[in-house]
Amino acid sequence: MIRRILDFVLILLFVWVCMIFGLWLINGVIVPLKLPGIKNRVVIAVLKVSVSAGLVLFWLWLWREIIKRMFWHILKSQESPTKRAETERRKKREKPKKSDEH
Fold this sequence. Notes:
Order of helices and strands: HH
Strand content: under 5%
Largest sheet: none
Number of strands: 0
Structural class: mainly alpha
Oligomer: single chain
Number of domains: 1
Shape: rod-shaped
Number of helices: 2
Distance between the termini: 56 Å
Radius of gyration: 27 Å
Helix content: over 70%
């Protein structure tokens, strides 16, 4: 139980750190970026928004992959006790038959 809580907290911390870093990157690097070859302000704005959206989509994909792997890891770790309990139930149902030897 504590392991799951710790994993969840670590995922949240990682996601928040990545989000803050991404926002800093967008605000500190992408927004003030000057492209010397392009004079049209609309094209520059569209490029900045596209790069920012790409970073956001990458962040969302990374978060999804982390959660997906964590989900399947938890399911696999819970699978073996479930199978063990099912095997024990089968053994209880199938009581050995007493043979009649007279």
